[in-house]
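Worked Example 4.2. Consider the chain below.
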Amino acid sequence: MWPTHTPLKPKNFNPVKATPPFYMELKDDGYRFTISVYKGVLQVMMSGTRINHVNKVKRHLPAWVYQLPEQSVVECEFFLPEKPASLVPSAIKGTIPDILSINAFAIPFYHGTDVRDLDYHLMNSLIATVTGKAPEFQVVPTMPDLSALEAMAKLRRVEGFVLKERGYANWWKVKIEHTADLKVSGLQGGRGKYFGKVGAVILQDGTGREVGTAGGFDDATRFAITEKDIGRICEIKYQYITEHGKLRHGRFKRWREDKDVAEVIAYG
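Applying the procedure from the previous section yields the following structure tokens:
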């Protein structure tokens, strides 16, 4: 990957800091990849991790990838239409026969030139020139109604939307989230700066089946959690349920002292 490049990540939509108009793009339910050519080597990165053997993804890559000029970076979403993102790694490994769809949404560097300062329309034109397809977008001239966007995302069965102010700056994300009340069945240790602390709670549904984990605590909650909390009911946020009945991107919201185990539902 381009050695000086850190991919731009959209922030959660903040109406105080965001400034319309926005260019709204669909957020496919997939994995973010970075494809680059540097010193003659084609590199494919998934979530910041280099895929050492490009042959693993070769069958999924469109022809334009092999025509990228030297010192170019293209950011894409790899996804399976109408299927959850959790199947993307399986498609890459070849354990399922599906061919991934790839949508490019940004080109921060092209032929050694830093083009991150392009306005939105020029960035889209460059993407169309390089890949043959520009991102679809809708102009949102004023502050959006977030509840209406969430309803639209559910209707179109997408993960959410990205609201862009420029081609490669001031990106805001609006994602669909669901909530659930689940039982804490165990604790998972933290990593990095949270080593020695609780990293996540392990969750069970009403049948006693493990359905995933949830983190995302504030520090006060994280430091207060002990094994005595096993068996308590908590409310969590999540994006969706995978094909294996697991919650994707579970985040702790609050304890539910008003709930008991009998009120915890079953998923799957």
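The longest strand covers residues 178-189. The chain has five helices and 18 strands. Compare this with Example 4.1 before moving on.
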